[in-house]
Amino acid sequence: MENVEDDSLSAGAYYSQDFEWEALRDEVERMPGFLDHHGHSIVDTHESSSSSLKVCGSAASSRIVEEGLDAIVECRDEAPSTSTSWETFHTRHSRNLFFKERRYLTKEFPDLCKADKPLFLLEIGCGTGSSVVPVIRANKQAVVHACDCSAAALKKASEVVNTARDPGSTSIFYPFLCDISISKLPNFLCCSACRRKNRQSEDTGLELLANDRTESHEQFDATMGTPESKNLSGHDFVSCCIGGLDIVTMIFTLSAIPVEKMAHVLAECLEVLKPGGLLLFRDYGLYDMTMLRFAPRQRISSCMYQREDGTLSYFFSLEAVRTLFTQAGLVERELEYCCVQLMNRRKQVPMKRVWVHAKFQKPE
């Protein structure tokens, strides 16, 4: 479920603070007609028994709206999956590589490059592999599992990653089909017994010994997933499962998921992370240029828009991300807006992009 409007930056030119987000907010809210068209989108308000969390400091941004953060963190109504729309999208673009390689990721998230031991990573919504390739190039010991709701995307991702892998690299890539918005992550990542042990470790604060077998593990199910994932059972690091992930990445994925399913997605990520593991996040931020391009009729809820092809795009505030992730049980380590000004060379028009950068950690 890789999103379609990310302008990738080269690794050598990575930068993230061309302008102040607050200045952009003020500029956007002064635009004629903006409040009429997008007014219900400019605030996420989460009411609790003790406090009211407000996204923006301006008068317009402090308006309470019908839908906001409550819709994300509390709504549990059924929402339709967008997997069919993504399969259609990736099938249509199967001949060409639609997404650029996100070479900036290893600079933005140095944890992806630590190579003192094998790194076990899961990419949620890997699309055609644009976020996987820079990882396996930078970390020769990376074991990357990657899921997507589109079989066409996974097929292309396998081709792209195999072509990009350096000779002699010991990195491993295991793609598997999974619509994370409606499904649980498979047990070969972290079996039920290991998940219960991780929860026990969190509850007691005690480190569990690796050779503790007081609770029997489930047998690894080698029939799950794609042929690539079946090969897991042939590796030394597999017993009942791989024991959880060091890192989970979500790069322009959560914004493409219905708001009603975001809490479920984060809960699944928490389940398969090892204690102390990291969730690395990058996605669209409030007032990003692409948000302003949507017509009013395309707005389907607070900060959520639907493209003509049926795919979704949510625009996050820092407060929305903080509330979502911390309520899932993760601890905030980094959270900021990345504000980048690009230039449309053909039209000579500046383009102000806003993305949210975040790093959260599972408690040890």
TrEMBL record:
Its EC number is 2.1.1.-. One of its GO terms (biological process) is methylation. SUPFAM superfamilies: S-adenosyl-L-methionine-dependent methyltransferases. InterPro entries: METTL2/6/8-like, SAM-dependent_MTases_sf. Keywords: Methyltransferase, Transferase. One of its GO terms (molecular function) is RNA methyltransferase activity. S-adenosyl-L-methionine-dependent methyltransferase. Belongs to the methyltransferase superfamily. METL family. This is tRNA N(3)-methylcytidine methyltransferase. It comes from Ceratodon purpureus (Fire moss).
